[in-house]
Amino acid sequence: MNWQVSLFRLGLALALIFPIGWNRESAHKTAGLRTHLLVGLGSCLFTLVGIDMAHIFGGDAGRVAAQIVTGIGFLGGGAILRAGFSVRGITTAASIWSTAAVGMACGAGFYPGAVVGSVFTFGVLTVVEQWEASKHRGKRTIFLTIRVNGREGLARVREIIVSFGIPSGHLHLEPESEGVVRSVTLEANLAARVVSRLVESLLHDPDVVGVESEVR
């Protein structure tokens, strides 16, 4: 492969990844513009190196590129942070993953896939983000501490919460020393009217001792 083609593919990778990185940069994410550009550039270059090595020495041209997937997995994992009951950075980690795929497509000369991948990734980060924001407009982060008697009460509390469309993964159990659950903590973005209905439903359960709420 001549150097003009290699230079074009590297430049195309940077051009297609720039809007994705800029979106993360403008959102003040840990992995911003420079990180995404470097990931895309490195992925493209690794793919080019694999193609040239296979041409010169023989073998599988995708062997080097295949290791990019594993490497990007470790890099994306570093962008995920846990704060209390919340996990942040998953979207940024996924955008790094997609960026690597765009870079690999450029390096392999799969231009239609690279362009479409870049456009779709940017669309998910912008259009879908705005749609999600509109769904959560008017909602607040609510912390509920629900005191429960017994395992059966806990199961019913879980059913009530799920019936309101809240994933059970938002629940955090606080066991006593004997291993019996004494309280359940719930963190979710809910409208005020939904919170009042949820608390009312929980208090109707005979095994719920009390419910404490905090708005943040």
Q: How far apart are the termini?
A: 57 Å
Unreliable runs:
none
Q: Main beta sheet: strand number and arrangement? A: 4 strands, antiparallel
Structural class comes to: alpha+beta
Nearest-integer average pLDDT = 78
Helical segment count: 7
In terms of DSSP E residues, the strand content is: 15-25%
Report Rg: 24 Å
Explain this structure to me?
- This protein has 216 residues and is α+β, with helices and mostly antiparallel strands.
- The protein folds into 2 domains: 133 residues, no CATH class; 76 residues, 2-Layer Sandwich (Alpha-Beta Plaits).
- The protein contains 7 helices and 6 strands, in the order H-H-H-E-E-H-H-E-H-E-E-H-E.
- Strand 1 and strand 2 form a beta hairpin.
- It is elongated and about 75 Å long.
- The N and C termini lie far apart (57 Å).
Keywords:
Alpha-Beta Plaits; elongated; alpha+beta; 2 domains; 6 strands; 216 residues; four-stranded antiparallel sheet; two-stranded antiparallel ribbon; single chain
